[in-house]
Amino acid sequence: MRVGIIGYGTIGTDVAGFIQRGEAGEASLAAVLVRKGLTCESGPAGKSGKPLFTASFNEFMEQAPDLVVECAGHSAVAAYGERVLRTADFMVVSAGALADEDLHGRLMKTARENGHRLVVPSAAIAGLDRIAAASVGYMEEVSLITRKPPKAWIGTFVEDKLNLEGLTEPVCVFEGPARESAKLFPESVNVSAALSLAGIGFDRTTVKVFVDPGITSNRHQVVARGKFGELQLEVGNTPSAANPKTGYIVAMSVIHNLRKLSGPFMIGL
Fold it and tell me: I need a labelling partner for 136 at 20 to 30 A (CA). Which of 43, 146, 169, 227 fits?
């Protein structure tokens, strides 16, 4: 399976590295779409010797990827999603972009019409397989509490509202529906979007977001109740050294999905 990557930031770099080291099953790296002006001389090269890195979307798609992994944020999902799905499957890491009902609907329509798939990896959260199975029946509640240390909020609007260095106790910076949280925290709470898509939707899934000076990892607590029974889980993700808004597990989740999609065996769907 030939894989294209949109974006070469923290997640895109990690995903490309895994693939190039042969750790993504039967997947191979076809191309990487980067921003104009970005040089990637140290990046992986194709077997033909032609650089895999390009700022041209047309040249990127000419490499004939079977699946494209988006690692460049909400705007990239909107800019490239429909165009990718006309010829390839599309894996969306920035799942919060799908809180836009119109965009989500257009992507689904394009995927159906062209026989391709829109794929959302678990990324920073666990338990989506059970949530998705439980949503077959009635669900009373799906809730998420996200806690991240102050350094994860540097460069966001939260930094303008709080003295991050001076915090001595947790502060709740958001409480409301997942649709709003996904739009408000595009880089930090994609977890709420993935949870909503797996379960009862963006408007019924409730979210609380905390800045917590007492922790060093990004933590997510999920509670769900319904006909299936009850689920309670908590995960603690090691923040990426290059970008503490995300965690190493996100790229690992992408690679896990590439192994499943390119190989003969799947588990935990």
Answer: 146
